[in-house]
Amino acid sequence: MNRERSSTKLVKKILAMFHKQGIPYAILRDYQFLFDRTSTVGKDLDVVVQRADFLHIHALLKQEGFFRQSISPFSNHAGYGTYLPEEEKLLRFHFHIGGISGGHVIYLPASTLFARKKMVGSQKLGFWSVISDEDTLVTMLIHGGLDKQGLLREKIIDQLQVLRKKARKHKLDLNYVETNLTMLLGKDLAQQFLKFFFDGAFEDISNYTVKKRRAFLMAQPQRLFIALYVRMCSAIWHGLRRLRSAPLISFIGMDGAGKTTATNALISLLQKNNIRSALIYTGRGRKNILPIQFFGKRYKRMEEKIDNQQKEVSDDPFATVSWKRSLMYTFAAPVFACDLLLRYFMHIFPKRHADIVVITDRYSSDLLVMKHVPEWFRMFLYTFFPRPTQVIYLYNKPSVLYQRKPNHPHGDLERQQLVFHCILPIIHPHKIKSITKKRTAQAVAEICFKTILQYGETSSHILRRG
User: What DSSP string runs through 272-328?
Assistant: First the structure.
C-alpha cells in the first residue's frame, strides 16, 4: 500500500483548516491526488477564494510556514510556497481571488462557483470542494490550456474528452454552459465552441485564440479598460521589481569540502522545481576574463623552479616568504579582483536583475584566502564586492579533505583552515559540515530554498508557474 506523501498531507491539512474556520474554497483542477495516492500534487494547486477571506487565509498559511509569492498587486492572483525537504519539492498554492479571471477581468465570480461546486473524496479519506463540471468546461473553453506551439495541451484534451462523454449521457447542464459562453463571448462564438466540443474537434478551439480574446474584451467595453489599466500598472510594477537584485548564493570552503558537488546538486534541484537559476564559477583558478592564466602559469613554473633550487616547499604555512614573492602576489591581487569584478558585472549582475537566482562556486571570499598578500590589503579589495544574499561555508577536518584530494600540497589545507577561521566572523555564513553528499545536499537545499522563498515575498518572477 502506497504511503501518503507529506505534500498531500499538508494540502489536506490546509484545506481542512479552511473548512473548520468556515472559509469557502473551490479547487480548479488537478485534485486527483486528494483521493488517489498514486497521483502527486502538481507544481501549483489552483484554488478560488473570496476576497473577504484573503487576509485570514494569509495568516493561516504563514502559520504553516508558507511564504507569499506576490504576483502583481493589480491582478486577482496570489501565490504561496513552502519547501518540503523529504520530497525535495516546492509546494505552492495559487489563489484566484474573487473568482476566475481572463484578461485580468473576473468572468466566473467566486459566488457563482461556490453555488455550483461539488465534493470529491470518500468517507475514509475526506471530502474536498472542487468546481463543477460545467464551470470546468466553461473555463477550458474560455481560458484554454495552450502549449508553446499554441495547441491545446494533452492533459486538457483528455479532460475535454471526459466532459464530452458526460455531456452525451446528459450529465452536464449545457444550458448553463451555453448561457455563460454567450454572455462572455457572444452567441456566434459560443455556439461555434460548443460545436467543436461535441464534434471532438478540440484542437480547432486553439485557432480562435485571438478572436476569443477580442470577443471577450469587446462584449463589455469596461473589460477592455480594466485589462489595459491592469496591464499598464502591472508592467510598471514588474519594471520596478527588476531594480531589485535576485538572490546571490555563494559557496565557500577549503579545497575538497564539496563546493562543486553541492552547487551542481542544488542547481539541478532548483531547475526541477521551476526556479529560474544559474550556476557560475567565480574562483581565481579558471574562467577568467583577463589573461591571468596565461601569465600565471608561466610565473608558477618559474616559482617552482626557484623553490626546487632552494629546496623550499612554498606551500608550507611556516615557510619564510621572500619580500619579492610577497610583492609579486600583492601586485597580482588587484588584477584578480578586477577580473572578478568584471565577471560579476558581465555575468552575475544581468542575471540577478532578470530575476534569476545566481549560485556561485566560490566568490569574493577567494581574495581573503590569497597567500603572501597582506591581510589589510585583502580586506580592502574585498570591500569593493557586492555582498551575497547568502553564504554557505562547507567544511571538514583537513585530514578528511586530504583523503578526498590526496595530491593536494601538504600543509595548505591547514593554512586555509586558519584563514577561514579568521574571516568567517566577517562573512557570517551558514556552516555545513560536509560528511556525505546526500546529507550536505539536503542541508544546503533547506537553507537555499528558505532564502529564495523569503526573497519571493517581494518579487514575482523567480518561481515560474508549471
Answer: HTTB-EEEEE--SSSS-SSSHHHHHHHHHHHHHHHHHHHT--TT-TTSPPPHHHHHH
Q: Establish if 94 belongs to a structural domain.
A: yes
Assess whether 117 and 183 both reside in one domain.
no
3-class DSSP state of 405:
coil
Strand partners, 395: 433
- Residue 98 belongs to a domain with what CATH number? 3.30.460
Cα 454 to chain centroid distance, Å, stands at: 11
Domain end marker among 131, 163, 193:
131
Regarding whether 434 and 362 lie in a shared domain, the answer is yes
> pTM (2 decimals)?
0.81
State pLDDT tens for residues 260-296: 999 999 999 999 998 999 999 987 767 777 876 656 5
**Helical packing angle, 187-199 and 154-168, nearest 10°:** 90
CA distance 267 to 151: 31
Question: Could you read off the pLDDT of 158-211 as tens digits, one per residue?
Answer: 888 999 999 999 899 999 999 999 988 888 888 998 998 999 888 787 777 788
Domain containing residue 48? 1-131
Give the single-character DSSP code of 257: S
Grid coordinates representing 256?
575538497
Would you say residue 359 lies in a domain? yes
